[in-house]
Write a structure and sequence with these properties.
The protein is of the alpha/beta class. It has 33 helices and 24 strands. The longest helix has 30 residues. It starts with 19 loop residues before the first helix and ends in a 7-residue tail after the last helix. The structure holds ligand 26W.
Length: about 800
């Protein structure tokens, strides 16, 4: 049937007008007609669903118009491929971005429902582990804000990151159930479904014109079904789509088995298919190496690429313009198999010549690296790829042959260098290195902070960088100021608007105007008052969840992030023990009262990380209950860290702990959130701390410890730290206290090996940096005692955070990597 041309040129709809009255009517209509509930019996979840649907309705016209506009203007599209999107709650974000907060609050109040309660009822979508997933979420919001036609592609996990509970101070993992009450944000698109294959073999077929093609004949097939979520930018600038794939069987029931009476067997296929998108892998720094993970990676890569190519062909009719109209960004190597998949689609399915396909592929892909930790670099055994994706393995070999030829002929590489750039790791069982694949298949490879990018060039990718020297570039991370300032800290946002006017809401660099108020006594008092209010709320939450009383007048010293040895929560808790000893030894001194607040999840298989959580809880129990401490020090571990909890903790922080071993944290993004909310950072010269130091100025941040270069040199020396520990009586005593079971009388040896590791190799330089850290903490105390100085520093942190907006980061990706012009706002 001939299709009627679609009219794309309808005018941009205004955001729908809304008053408390109109919203109230809309919520009631949704409750009755969409949820099917009488208001007099409606439960909180019914009100939540009705409210979300109402907010959603106000986003719909813009969503459709955004998509129509891209068809109309033929602007280049950006596709952000990520195995993780740590988006958290969406309702407040959407309401705030389309200016509905107050009308919705009013409307609900008239219906006897509290908006705050509903906000807290919304499940926190934890489809990610940590920094990489949260970055993807901030990027989506910024791409909408900057009006870039963009899509996020990922997996609709049924279970997000596990829920963390404490059992006697140990982490226990429970399944997460964000979809238990349904998800009013998503739209299932049964018509956007693609077949994804696995296994089978490759056949050479000769076309009628004599051309020989390779054809992959998979023996397993399943469907990828799209679920779309609208992502609205600031002031509704644009609404982009987050498209998450769900795996479903092609035949839900195997009829022949069913009819033969094998009712369970009839469902086998279905269970096997659905397993692929059932659960998020909870490790954020070690490659799992499991077949199911590779299946997840290929599944979402293949579905996304098929969707992208289908859309491109629909609009442009041929693939020659692919790299001009499509940019695909790979969020780490997790979607790197996409490179081979696009080659297969272009060459095998669309008959392009290899060289042209390779040019289009490189022109299309960009790759962002997020870690250089060796255990986190993905590689897959050749035999596994051969079995699961035989055609892709062939393609990888063919790409590799070209790369190795380049290395030999063009660059005159030594054998060692050739081995370094090879896509195949030959040492101990042949494996395909996904970092190398992502690198050679992309025109841009970026790091996420200046230091990290420099280390990429010097370490993991040094030889590839020599071979392709114009590809590596830096894009320092950022965070969205909407969620991480305006929404999570309305008090501070209001104060800033009252002080410098509201222009910063649309142009974050205007925060600089606050600099002039840093020393203003009146402003300082108001700034401190907002902080105090936020601290009261957090103190209440700590009381409610843990039964621990903390004073909002004490310094809130916060370290919240995944638990990992390189992030050095251990250094922080050892310092707490040192403080504890000193307070008891010198009760007469003028101690600064502190609350050390920790939160974070450990990968379920990471023993030392779990042990560190237990240590924090063991230390907390002793310190919090010792009357000799007189409340001068408290230690708190808040369970189940997630985006929503961060939104409460970050605005209440005085001190931000960013104390990773230099050279190991690629960027860090929590550091930026604290900065925005007026906390002072104590940190090492690592990741984006380096740029923070630059932006905020040396006087407004407390830097300590070894540099990345010093860490490298020290490791090369291979000296044991024992002598050094013995030379520092204070450290020695603390370590002995922990190692001999003072905090673990029920199991005195619990921490013997953990502390023993510090004496033997201390890979993460905990003992080597201890004295510098303790000294820096004393400086922090001294600043705290001078409230005027503290407040001035805190204000300057907020004033100078503009650079760390993800709008800046995305602007740079758009310009340098994607070749997309950002329409003026
Ligand atoms: C294959 C297992 C696995 C899973 C996830 C390995 C590595 C990862 C991520 C790359 C870990 C991660 O989240 N990295 C963090 O990325 C943030 C955003 O760029 C940075 O700010 C953090 O420094 C970096 O640790």
């Amino acid at each position: 049937m001939p299709q009627k041309p679609i009219a794309y040129d309808v005018p941009t709809p205004e955001l729908r007008a809304a008053t408390a009255e109109s919203i109230q009517a809309e919520i009631l209509a949704r409750l009755i007609y969409s949820i099917g509930k009488d208001p007099i019996v409606a439960r909180p979840h019914d009100w939540l669903a009705a409210t979300i649907m109402t907010v959603r309705d106000h986003v719909m016209d813009r969503w459709m118009e955004s998509s129509r506009e891209t068809w109309r203007t033929s602007h280049k599209r950006v596709y952000y491929l990520s195995l993780e999107f740590l988006i958290g709650r969406l309702m407040r974000d959407a309401m705030s971005n389309v200016g509905l907060m107050e009308p919705v609050r009013e409307a609900l109040k008239n219906l006897n429902v509290d908006l705050g309660d509903l906000i807290n009822l919304e499940p926190d979508a934890a489809l990610g582990n940590g920094g990489l997933g949260r970055l993807a979420a901030c990027f989506l919001e910024s791409m909408s804000t900057l009006k870039i036609p963009a899509y996020g592609y990922g997996i609709r996990y049924v279970h997000g990151l596990f829920r963390q509970e404490m059992s006697e101070g140990w982490q226990v993992e429970l399944p997460e159930e964000w979809l238990a009450h349904g998800n009013p944000w998503e739209f299932e698109r049964r018509e956007s479904a693609y077949e994804v294959g696995f296994g089978g073999h490759v056949e050479s077929v000769t076309d009628p014109d004599g051309e020989v093609r390779q054809e992959w004949r998979p023996n397993d097939h399943l469907m990828a079904v799209a679920f779309d979520t609208p992502i609205v930018g600031w002031r509704g600038a644009r609404v982009n789509t987050l498209r998450l794939w769900s795996a479903q069987p092609i035949d839900p029931i195997l009829l022949d088995k069913f009819n033969a009476g094998d009712h369970i067997g009839a469902l086998e296929e279905s269970a096997k298919a659905e397993a692929i998108t059932r659960v998020l892998y909870p490790a954020d720094s070690t490659a799992a190496g499991q077949e199911l993970r590779l299946r997840q990676e290929f599944f979402f890569s293949s579905a996304s690429l098929q969707d992208i190519v289908r859309r491109h062909l629909q609009q442009y009719g041929d693939l020659g313009s692919l790299a001009d109209k499509v940019a695909v960004q790979l969020n780490d190597t997790h979607p790197a198999i996409s490179i081979a998949e696009l080659m297969r689609i272009l060459v095998d399915e669309n008959g392009l010549k290899w060289d042209e396909a390779w040019k289009l592929t490189k022109g299309t892909f960009g790759y962002t690296n997020h870690t250089l930790l060796p255990e986190a670099l993905e590689s897959w055994p050749v035999f596994l790829l051969e079995r699961l994706l035989p055609r892709h393995m062939q393609i990888v070999y063919q790409i590799n042959a070209d790369v190795l030829a380049d290395a030999r002929d063009r660059a005159n590489f030594s054998d060692a260098q050739i081995a370094n750039v090879s896509l195949i790791d030959e040492a101990g069982g042949r494996r395909v290195r996904m970092g190398q694949l992502a690198f050679v298949g992309s025109h841009s490879i970026n790091g996420v902070s200046a230091l990290h990018t420099q280390l990429m060039k010097q370490t993991v990718f040094s030889d590839l960088h020599k071979l392709y020297p114009d590809r590596i570039n830096n894009k320092t991370n950022g965070i969205t100021p909407r969620r991480w300032l305006m929404q999570c800290n309305p008090g501070l946002t209001q104060l800033i608007a009252d002080t410098i006017g509201p222009a910063f809401l649309d142009d974050i660099d205007r925060l600089k105007d606050l600099d002039g108020f840093a020393e203003d006594a009146g402003f300082q008092a108001r700034f401190a008052q907002v902080k105090l209010e936020n601290k009261r709320k957090l103190a209440q939450l700590i009381q409610d969840r843990l039964g621990i009383k903390v004073s909002p007048d004490a310094m809130f010293d916060v370290q919240i992030k995944r638990i990992h040895e390189y992030k050095r929560q251990l250094l922080n808790i050892i310092h707490a023990v040192a403080m504890y000893d000193e307070i008891r030894a010198h009760p007469e001194r003028d101690w600064v009262p502190r609350v050390k607040i920790f939160a974070g999840k450990a990968a379920p298989g990471y023993w030392n990380a779990k042990l560190i959580i237990k240590l924090i809880n063991d230390v907390a129990k002793v310190i919090n209950n010792d009357p000799a401490v007189r409340g001068l020090l408290k230690v708190v571990f808040l369970p189940n860290y997630n985006v929503s909890l961060a939104e409460v903790i970050v605005p209440a922080a005085d001190l931000s702990e960013q104390i990773s071993t230099a050279g190991m944290e690629a960027s860090g993004t929590g550091n930026m959130k604290f900065m925005a909310n007026g906390a002072i950072t104590i940190g090492t010269m690592d990741g984006a701390n380096v740029e923070m130091h630059e932006e905020v100025g040396a006087d407004n941040i407390v830097i300590f410890g070894m540099t990345a270069q010093e860490v490298e040199d020290m490791r090369a020396e291979r000296t044991t730290p024992k002598q050094m520990i013995d030379a520092s009586p204070r450290l020695h005593e603390v370590l002995e206290t922990i190692a001999t079971g003072v905090f673990s009388p029920d199991d005195p040896d619990r921490y013997r090996d953990l502390i023993g590791g510090l004496y033997e190799h201390d890979w993460f330089m905990v003992t080597r940096d201890f004295d510098a850290y303790a000294k820096a903490q004393n400086e922090v105390d001294a600043i705290w005692r001078d409230k005027t100085q503290w407040n001035a520093m805190a204000i300057r942190n907020t004033a100078r955070v503009g650079f760390f907006s993800s709008d800046r980061t995305i602007g740079q990706y758009a310009q340098d990597i994607w070749g997309v012009t950002v329409p003026s706002r």
